[in-house]
Design a protein that fits this description.
The protein has 376 residues and is of the alpha/beta class. It has 12 helices and 20 strands. It holds the Pfam family ADH_zinc_N.
Length: 376
């Protein structure tokens, strides 16, 4: 008898982070679910951290991936927002309690019982969740997003994590209230390059902050930044002291915060988005003496994420991507660890995830989702 819940993807099985072909099972499509045939999945830096257990809470085997765009192939009887054939997205979260203060404020991502798309357990604790480096996923319709017309499936996929990660703090910390304010973007990678684009669309004057001048021309000429500041140029750093209203810090490696604080005006705000493996030093004197603020932010709720997708479609904002095959994922991870990507890898899942292409395939039974045979 054919297992109608079978699914296939690439999983990491230990802290080496090496991904290999992997058979598993998805749950049945329930009355509140949407089954999605995955077309594309972005490769987030969090995927790299998780498969290598950099943060200490990885549970193997892990199929990563939370920047998913695909086609709805089945919807439950209670689902009215989506229909079969719709182009849909799945981001970082796939569940929450739906009753706490955060959920009631459309901030499901801050729910104490939030359920992440991978490296987590289902809301009822009975199964393990696996991500988008796979052929199919089944998700509660409340955590499925509509992909607007005009937003490409491949270069639009990274917006489901990187896009909302920079959009949400811009809204919350008041960066969008007055055009012409000065925003510094520290780090020009997967998050940073989208921060430049969204910041410009909000009318901000954007300065990219980087350790070297390597990306200066593309930051200004291609991404639209107004200026470029190299932190190792002491004269330029001195000239930039007290010139920025906001800084979005996207760097996930260890780095000094003091030079960034000096760039802020009085009442300036630095928002940390990167997740270094080790704690950063937080100098207090410049915060107190300049009435400056340090904050953090992580993705956004479902309502705000849908708003972000509509905003990006309107302003024609997408990620700059390198499209790869699933078989290239391990070399892509090696390059990502060296920041050698412009600026986001995206896996062409539908055209390259081929079970028969690998000699060794691992198998696990996981009660979560449905496999499908339809072609798109």
């Amino acid at each position: 008898m054919v297992d109608q819940n079978k699914a296939f993807g690439w999983a990491a099985n230990d802290e080496s982070g090496v991904l290999s072909p992997f058979h598993f099972s998805r749950r049945e499509n329930g009355e509140n679910d949407v089954t999605v045939k995955i077309l594309f999945c972005g490769v987030c830096h969090s995927d790299l951290h998780t498969i290598k257990n950099h943060w200490g809470f990885s549970r193997y085997p892990i199929i990563p991936g939370h920047e998913i765009v695909g086609i709805a192939t089945k919807v439950g009887k209670n689902v009215t927002k989506f229909k079969e054939g719709d182009r849909v997205g799945v981001g970082v979260i796939i569940g929450s309690c739906q009753s706490c203060e955060s959920c009631n404020q459309d901030l499901e991502n801050y729910c104490p019982k939030v359920v992440f798309t991978y490296n987590s357990r289902s809301s009822d604790g009975t199964s393990r969740n696996q991500g988008g480096y796979s052929d199919v996923i089944v998700v509660d319709h409340r955590f499925v997003l509509s992909i607007p017309d005009g937003l490409p499936s491949d270069s639009g996929a990274p917006l489901l994590c990187a896009g909302i990660t920079v959009y949400s703090p811009m809204k919350y910390y008041g960066m969008t209230k007055e055009s012409g304010k000065r925003l510094g973007v520290n780090g020009l990678g997967g998050l940073g390059h989208i921060a430049v684009k969204i910041g410009k669309a909000f009318g901000l004057r954007v300065t990219v902050i980087s350790r070297s001048s390597e990306k200066e021309r593309e930051a200004i000429d291609r991404l639209g930044a107004d200026s470029f500041l190299v932190t190792t140029d002491s004269q330029k750093m001195k000239e930039a002291v007290g010139t920025m209203d906001f800084i979005i810090d996207t760097v996930s490696a260890e780095h000094a915060l003091l030079p960034l604080f000096s760039l802020l005006k009085v009442n300036g705000k630095l928002v940390a988005l990167g997740l270094p493996e080790k704690p950063l030093d937080l100098p207090i004197f410049p915060l107190v003496l300049g009435r400056k603020m340090v904050g953090g932010s992580q993705i956004g709720g479902m309502k705000e994420t849908q708003e972000m997708l509509e905003f990006c479609a309107k302003h024609k904002i997408v990620s700059d991507i390198e499209l790869i095959k699933m078989s290239d994922i391990n070399s892509a991870m090696d390059r990502l660890a060296k920041s050698d990507v412009r600026y986001r890898f995206v896996i062409d899942v539908a055209n390259s995830l081929l079970p028969e292409s690998s000699a060794e395939i691992l198998t696990e039974q996981v009660d979560h989702g449905v496999s499908i045979t339809s072609r798109f």
